[in-house]
């Protein structure tokens, strides 16, 4: 009886909260569910971000490879166009000389023919004729070697002219082929640039905000050195802000700095003005002025991060790329910019297009400066040391 009463007492006790089932609409259940959803979403976003970064990296590698082929193609065309121009100049010179020699020799041949047609009787009948005939014979004898020499020169000029015309035809055919090949590669590059831009935009949400901030910095900068300094301060502040929001120590840069890679000129072409040479306005040049083909592809001279892309004072449309060890590249003279601020670029990766023509209607030029801590340095000397 005693055990029966104890059993009844035990059954009458209330069930503890620990053992009771939790209702589906209980706040703790919803919190746990939200936590799991947030973690799943975070994992999904991280995977998506990694995929985008991978696609962006693959696109950039392809772009660099295509840019190398375009650069080689442009170099080939530059050589062909120079050779065609030289041959055309020589052709014109030979044709002018041939015309002059032909007229001169033609007059001489006519004089000889007239002398040959003169009858001997007429020579005897004329007073003083024998003496004049002897003098004419002596004169002809003295000038005949020169006639032969000029005739030989004429023959050589004609032969050279035939060679030049054949070379011109061959070079022009080759230039036409190279131009068509270049146009196809440029189309491929344009498509890849567009794809890269879209991929990069998906990985960054603050591009527009940065563009506005950089326009304000540009307007407040007195010169290029001042602009580079303000860009450095802006990037450092932004990095600290990003780190603060994430609640961790600030990294060296918001965008990892890629390796410089093999240094190269931004375009294929001829250096018209070297570092420290006198430029077109008589001042000492702080960079290189390079003449290129109309609409040439402009690439990053070394790997880095784009810190500025847009208009700046008398430089026009410019790009500033930050490299390792506090170096910056300034590229000016672009007709179109194909990169955005904050983008990581590899050495040789396309960043823009050269103008179609110069302001005076001639071949366009690109201006390139390399700066260390804001001060210009000789690009040729630095390329080997980066």
Structure notes:
It is a single chain. The chain has 386 residues and is α+β, with helices and mostly antiparallel strands. Among the domains are: 66-203; 257-382, Distorted Sandwich (Glucose Permease (Domain IIA)). It has helices at 2-12, 27-117, 120-125, 129-203, 207-220, 224-246, 379-382; strands at 269-273, 288-292, 297-299, 304-312, 316-322, 327-332, 334-337, 344-345, 350-354, 365-372, 375-377. The strands form two sheets. Strands 1, 2, 4, 5, 6, 8, 10 and 11 form an eight-stranded antiparallel beta sheet that branches. A three-stranded antiparallel beta sheet has the order 3-9-7. Helix 2 packs antiparallel against helix 4. The longest helix has 91 residues, at 27-117.
Write the topology of this structure.
Layout (H helix, E strand, L loop, with lengths): L1 H11 L14 H91 L2 H6 L3 H75 L3 H14 L3 H23 L22 E5 L14 E5 L4 E3 L4 E9 L3 E7 L4 E6 L1 E4 L6 E2 L4 E5 L10 E8 L2 E3 L1 H4 L4
Antiparallel strand pairs: 1-2, 2-10, 3-9, 4-5, 4-8, 5-6, 6-10, 7-9, 10-11
Helix pairs in contact: 2-4
Quickly list its features.
386 residues; alpha+beta; Glucose Permease (Domain IIA); eight-stranded antiparallel beta sheet; 7 helices
- Globular, elongated, flat, extended or rod-shaped: what is the shape? elongated
Oligomer: single chain
Largest β sheet strand count, sense and barrel closure: 8 strands, antiparallel
Question: What is the count of DSSP helices, taking H or I runs of 4+ residues?
Answer: 7
- Gyration radius (Cα, Å) is 40 Å
Poorly predicted tracts of residues:
249-253
Number of strands: 11
Order of helices and strands: HHHHHHEEEEEEEEEEEH
């Amino acid at each position: 009886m005693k055990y029966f009463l104890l059993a009844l007492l035990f059954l009458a006790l209330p069930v503890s909260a620990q053992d009771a089932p939790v209702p589906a609409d209980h706040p703790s259940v919803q919190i746990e569910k939200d936590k799991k959803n947030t973690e799943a979403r975070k994992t999904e976003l991280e995977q998506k971000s990694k995929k985008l970064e991978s696609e962006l990296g693959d696109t950039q590698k392809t772009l660099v490879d295509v840019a190398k082929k375009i650069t080689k193609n442009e170099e080939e065309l530059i050589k062909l166009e120079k050779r065609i121009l030289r041959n055309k100049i020589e052709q014109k010179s030979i044709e002018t000389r041939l015309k002059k020699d032909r007229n001169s020799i033609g007059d001489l041949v006519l004089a000889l023919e007239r002398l040959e047609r003169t009858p001997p009787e007429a020579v005897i009948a004329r007073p003083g004729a024998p003496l004049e005939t002897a003098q004419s014979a002596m004169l002809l004898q003295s000038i005949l070697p020169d006639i032969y020499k000029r005739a030989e020169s004429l023959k050589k000029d004609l032969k050279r002219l035939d060679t030049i015309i054949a070379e011109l035809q061959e070079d022009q055919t080759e230039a036409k082929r190279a131009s068509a090949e270049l146009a196809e590669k440029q189309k491929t590059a344009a498509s890849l640039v567009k794809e890269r831009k879209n991929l990069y935009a998906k990985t960054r949400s603050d591009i527009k905000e940065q563009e506005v901030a950089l326009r304000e910095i540009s307007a407040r900068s007195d010169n290029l050195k001042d602009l580079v300094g303000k860009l450095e301060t802006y990037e450092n502040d932004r990095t600290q802000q990003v780190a603060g929001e994430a609640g961790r120590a600030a990294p060296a840069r918001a965008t990892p700095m890629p390796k410089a890679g093999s240094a190269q000129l931004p375009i294929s072409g001829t250096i018209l003005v070297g570092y420290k040479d006198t430029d077109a306005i008589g001042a000492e040049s702080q960079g290189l002025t390079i003449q290129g083909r109309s609409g040439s592809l402009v690439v990053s001279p070394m790997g880095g991060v784009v810190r500025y892309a847009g208009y700046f004072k008398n430089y026009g449309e410019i790009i500033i790329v930050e490299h390792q060890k506090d170096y910056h590249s300034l590229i000016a003279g672009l007709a179109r910019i194909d990169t955005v601020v904050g983008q990581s670029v590899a050495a040789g990766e396309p960043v823009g297009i050269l103008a179609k023509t110069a302001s005076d209607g001639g071949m366009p030029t690109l201006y390139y400066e390399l700066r260390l801590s804001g001060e210009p340095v000789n690009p040729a000397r630095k390329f080997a040391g980066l």
